[in-house]
Amino acid sequence: MIKEKAHGGLSMTTQLEQAAQFILTKTKQNILSFGDQLPTGTAEGKYKFADNGFWVGGFWTGLNWLCYELSGDQQFSAAARASKSRFTQRLYEQQETLDHDIGFLYMPTFVADYKLTGNLEARKIALDAADRLKERFNEAGQFIQAWNVWESGEAFSEENRGRIIIDCMYNLPLLFWAYEETGDEDYRRVAVAHADTCANTIIRPDFTTFHTYVFDPSTGQPKFGQTFQGYADDSCWARGQTWAIGGYTYAYKYTGDKKYLELARKLTEVYIDRVEPDFIPLWDFSVPNPSEALRDTSAAAIAAASLLELAEHVEGEEKEKYVQFADNTLQSLYHNYSTKELPDNEGLLVNACGHHPAGSDIDCSLIYGDYYFAEAVTRLLGKGKGYW
């Protein structure tokens, strides 16, 4: 349990309850205007939408499931299911639009529904999604191909045939869950192989991470690390580091292999050592002129949720350290970076950084930042069952 401590005269539990109420109130307001649409990031405080959810659609559904757990209010469970047809159409009729982020799309949606309500149809859809993720496995290189070829003949796009990205580590729980549900060893085999390949390539010897890593798709031979969303090929993109922390924590949870736990610990130390004093990281840890660089609250939220999961697998002072760090991160997010005093802003957190090099979703709210903020609050209140 977290220690009670004051902030502005309020206990930490009271602050968490206030944060939870803030999340519930704003999400309920958004339900009325969003309908079955899937939000991505904000522009001038209003969410934009993607018809098929892009790679982030599952987080709006997951946010509603979290609110259902926090409140028991069936308005949230109804909202969580409102976009079902968008996800099923994409899975069964538009498979060419899917990439390795299948876990992000179908874990906080259909796996969550099954875990919370026992919905067997949701279970089947989630298992079908796991099949699509498993099919992306490159046997020669022992990795899951991240992205599809966006533009035939263009060099970077062609390299996608042999590309992994660090985000995929957080998608592996879909395969581990499918193994536990079915007993089919192939799901586990693919997930473990990918985790091991990432450990040997995309994670550097100093436990920073490349954003992407490229292999020869025919032979599986490792070639080089490269960035797409980070500052430089040899930099450490903050959100990527947090995807790695959570991904290896869950790999340990599902396998019990302590090498994954050790990786999660080492990756966490890098993050803790490099995060800013207010617990919110710069968008990339390697940027020049840090005082002028943008923050990324979405990375902070992912870190908080991931460290609360990591804390479940360690004991004593180490456990307390991770929980306290997550506490401090949530306090900073809620008091300094939330929209609690911006009632017309549809997001929960401001100052998130989506794709800095492309100038896309800069200094805004991002639906996955909002989701992980809510997940961490729900966890600390002891009300979340976990969807990963």
TrEMBL record:
Active-site residues, as the UniProt record annotates them: 101, 167
Amino-acid positions noted as binding substrate in the UniProt annotation, renumbered to this chain: 101, 167, 225, 227, 239, 243
Keywords: Hydrolase
Entry's Gene Ontology BP terms: polysaccharide catabolic process
Keyword DNA-binding on entry: no
SUPFAM superfamilies, A to Z: Six-hairpin glycosidases
Family to which the UniProt record says this protein belongs: Belongs to the glycosyl hydrolase 88 family.
Name of the protein described by the UniProt record: Glucuronyl hydrolase
